[in-house]
Amino acid sequence: MKATITLLPGDGIGPEVGAEAEKLLLAVARQFGHEFTLQTGLIGGAAIDATGNPLPEETITLCKQSDAVFLGAVGGPKWSDPNAPVRPEQGLLKLRAELGVFANLRPVAPHPATAELAPLKPHLLHGIDMLFVRELTGGSYFGAKRREADAAVDECRYTVAEIERVTRRAAQLARGRRRKLTHVDKANVLETSRLWRSTVTRIMDSEYPDVAYEHVLVDAMAMHLLTRPSHFDVVLTENLFGDILTDEAAVLAGSMGLLPSASVGEGKVGLYEPIHGSAPDIAGKGIANPYASLLSVALLLRHSLGLEAEAAALEQAVSSAISDGVLTADLRKDHPASTAEAGNAVLQRLSALAKAA
Ligand SMILES: NC(=O)c1ccc[n+]([C@@H]2O[C@H](COP(=O)([O-])OP(=O)(O)OC[C@H]3O[C@@H](n4cnc5c(N)ncnc54)[C@H](O)[C@@H]3O)[C@@H](O)[C@H]2O)c1
Ligand SMILES: CC(C)[C@H](C(=O)O)[C@@H](O)C(=O)O
Ligand SMILES: [Mg+2]
């Protein structure tokens, strides 16, 4: 097939893990006989430095003209002054809004080989297979913001329509899995959470009677995630809670460098990014874990291009590299692989799988 994919490397380790994503996309095209046109755009701090704008118009146009977008990461200390007029993260939020990608899918299914490496007891990590569905274009991220003399306000606003569409997406995904949905909120305190709770209840009861569901308060969920993570199947939650809980879930996988994400909406263009950030503490050293990015490329192949066999082969190649101990410094201290070595290990395994297919 023919597809156009926009790459937005961004800042910090973004270009380092993005280079491996590009390498694997080209390898998939070569080995499975597709024609991928790759184009690169500016976003985040790199875009601020070059143009003053964290999401230049040219980048929006490139993204909208493509079939899918891969993003590395944005942000870093250079642009983190709280008084700065523009910030890299604004570029990412605007891109999500422009593409209308309201559902952010963050799968958490730790590889058995990393159970030994995670800080939790291995028996707790057995059988974890969850899919977070994080609402991505509403809530306090997008509400009105203002500074007063001695105060600041971030408005958290959700409409019924916004909650309904992401609930339906999550419930449909649950139908293809274990048919269990956990909705996470703070309905004992927040008005928006009470609207979420009643809307989720109505949609699930009336449209998805075959999917079991529960409501869990977010503070308790932060604990349940660490004490009984294998209980959860699809976890549906609002934007800010989803951001926080998925970084916590990365501990179950063993590293921030292992969790991918897919952001989708009603439009044709999906956005794919690792859940981690620009990791300024390790940037520029060639040691970042590229697997979250490569797994995000697999999600891109599956969700935006419909290439299920290619997506599965790439996931299998990453899994086999992990089984064989090809791990970056976040996961092994003795003889860690570099970012490029880990990417090459996946590439070799993908070639072998493609030849065998
Ligand atoms: N999607 C994004 O672009 C995105 C996501 C999260 C944070 N950020 C931005 O990134 C900057 C840094 O944020 P932070 O430090 O809080 O979070 P971070 O995710 O960048 O890093 C947190 C910790 O995880 C480690 N880590 C992250 N990714 C890794 C990888 N691939 N391999 C190995 N280790 C990895 C880092 O070294 C660090 O110790 C901030 O400006 C933040 O706004 C961007
Ligand atoms: C960089 C930031 C705006 C972003 C978010 O909070 O959504 C990040 O933390 C993420 O998880 O993708
Ligand atoms: Mg985050």
TrEMBL record:
Reaction(s) catalysed by this chain, per the record, are: (2R,3S)-3-isopropylmalate + NAD(+) = 4-methyl-2-oxopentanoate + CO2 + NADH
E.C. designation(s): 1.1.1.85
**Transferase is among the record's keywords:** no
Asked whether the keyword Amino-acid biosynthesis is assigned, the reply is: yes
Positions annotated to bind substrate? 96, 106, 134, 219
Tell me which residues bind Mg(2+).
Answer: 219, 243, 247
Q: Which cofactor does it need?
A: Mn(2+); Mg(2+)
Q: Which UniProt keywords apply?
A: Amino-acid biosynthesis, Branched-chain amino acid biosynthesis, Cytoplasm, Leucine biosynthesis, Magnesium, Manganese, Metal-binding, NAD, Oxidoreductase
The record, for InterPro entries, names: IsoCit/isopropylmalate_DH_CS, IsoPropMal-DH-like_dom, Isopropylmalate_DH
Q: Where does NAD(+) bind?
A: 76-89, 277-289
GO molecular function terms noted in the UniProt entry = 3-isopropylmalate dehydrogenase activity; magnesium ion binding; NAD binding
Cofactor, free-text remark: Binds 1 Mg(2+) or Mn(2+) ion per subunit.
* Stated role: Catalyzes the oxidation of 3-carboxy-2-hydroxy-4-methylpentanoate (3-isopropylmalate) to 3-carboxy-4-methyl-2-oxopentanoate. The product decarboxylates to 4-methyl-2 oxopentanoate.
- Name of protein: 3-isopropylmalate dehydrogenase
| Source species | Pseudomarimonas arenosa
